[in-house]
What does this fold into?
Amino acid sequence: MGIFTLALGDLRERKARSALTMLGVAVGIAAIVALMSIGFGLKYSVTSQLTEMADTIMVMPGRFTQGRGYVMLGGFNERDLHDVKRISGVREAAAMFSAVKDVEHRRERKLFEVVGIDPKETHAVFGKIVKEEEGRGLRESDHKTCVVGHSIAKDLFVHEIGVNDRIKIAGRTFRVVGILEKQGGFRSEVDTQIYITKRDAKEIIGDEISMIFVRVRNIEDAERIADEIEERIDENHKIEDFTQALTMGSFIRQLEELFKILQAVLLAIASISLIVASIGIMNTMLMSVMERTHEIGVMKAIGARNRDILTIFVLESGIISVIGGILGMLIGVIGANVISVGLGSAFGIEIPAILHAEVLLGGLAVAVITGVLSGVYPAMKAARMSPVEAVRYE
Amino acid sequence: MSAEEIVRLEGVTKVYHMGKVEVQALRGVNLSVKRGEFIAILGPSGSGKSTLLNMMGCLDKPTSGKVFIEGTDTSRLNDNELAALRREKIGFVFQQFNLIHTLNALENVALPMLFAGIRRTERMKRASELLQKVGLSHRVYHKPMELSGGEQQRVAIARALANNPEIIVADEPTGNVDTDAGNVIMGIFERLNSEERRTIILVTHDFDIAARAHRKLRMTDGALL
Ligand SMILES: Nc1ncnc2c1ncn2[C@@H]1O[C@H](COP(=O)(O)OP(=O)(O)OP(=O)(O)O)[C@@H](O)[C@H]1O
Ligand SMILES: [Mg+2]
It folds into this structure.
């Protein structure tokens, strides 16, 4: 028997109340652990896809304006593409021609983004990040053929589109040679695009290049090259700020900033439940102190110091919060995985639950600190009682 | 102050405030208790016996006047020093036993030693010796609920003896037990007084019990006669 037994005695005596208070703490900690883990997972799933392309630069005509987002200003031409390819440090550059066109499959017509690419260039820039699920990719020699995004082929028309089917794009018949794998996540737009060759694109989309993808030799040069690209193309068109060259690196950094804010918001939301839990502990401890007033008086009468009484009650709330905290960690880990699987099956995006040791230990530490702090006021109340008054209390 | 004097009260008054009404529980009590004395305090209900005992047990502070324990002016002590005094010098026995009901007999007796910082093995050894002394070696692991009133009071006496105090203060220790159990309890107090020379101050309503003390004090309306 020690001080610990005295603190435990009350918890054991009022099992239901102690358990509910612990559950309150557990929910608070679980919320923190689960939300933080999902936050880290979200960040990972987005940035990992992007870091595969860390050495790319996206070149677009137009600019970001305050309030209206991105405004497109016309397009690039073949000379721009040629100039970009000649900038030192540029490994490859690929042009894309895109426009929204109507697509007809078995008498059903819908609007989709049609993207014209040069198969050789595109392969050089993107390698084989986007693979075909059925059929094959576009070839240089192809004529009136297309590769269809996964969602368009499988979900968006009443009849599925298969390899060798014929579909009409802007009134002209194309043969489907391949269907792309499902992308999801940050590349989900690919799932609703149709790819055709540059040559065919000139016919239906026009001559204007809507975007150029550049792959650099050294990531360290990316910013310099981006500046040079902007300068060169602006000069070609004699318009200032006509070109936006966005390095994936800076994009990733911006995203990471965004994720920091997201994590902070998640933490703030989760903290609300922790505040509720802390009020719960304080309530339980105040009740415990009140119910044990007589006992406190007796202990003081037989020589307990204020400090002894304080220790008993702080220990009691400490035990509640440690057990609650450990429970919360477990629930949090399970919860994070459940959310991860749930998001996966509901939205088709894979967000892993990433458990950082710091989050788990931090959660436990927060639980203990909250528990002890919420216990201090009731414990001080108990410690300061006058022995006679407390003994008389029944 | 003679060397033999162990407790001394000088002009002790206690006023309770019940809203606007003032209750004069003690009206200037003077008392000197010698080492090894066995004192019984008698008096009608509400005369202030418990209030007086609480002063001597350092559970309460007088409104005016002074309480000396072994020559120490208790009004000069802080909370910690008062706790030490209650722990080391005074053993308090209540009418209602007041055992901690979540702890068994042994743990209850060991509790004052826990507060005194005595090692666990030492605590348990001494606690079981004390339970043997009050004739309860067969009830060591019983919880208070599982003991009779007389047995509970004997556990409480063993607890009061935990840190070997010289003064035992008991407020109607036989008030909640039958005559036989009361006799056993009084036998223990008598032995503690005659064999171990401990100072005993007890409050009682029972004249037979009071007759066993060396000195009888009568209280009426907050004053000693
Ligand atoms: N905490 C208190 N607040 C207000 N009045 C009190 C308090 N404690 C005692 N009193 C009053 O002081 C007076 C003396 O009370 P005390 O308990 O000392 O009497 P007692 O002689 O022990 O009585 P009994 O024989 O019934 O135990 C009583 O009138 C009582 O009502
Ligand atoms: Mg009384």
Observations:
- Residues A 392; B 16, 18, 23, 25, 43, 45-51 surround adenosine-5'-triphosphate (ligand 1) (CB under 6 Å).
- The radius of gyration of chain B is 17 Å.
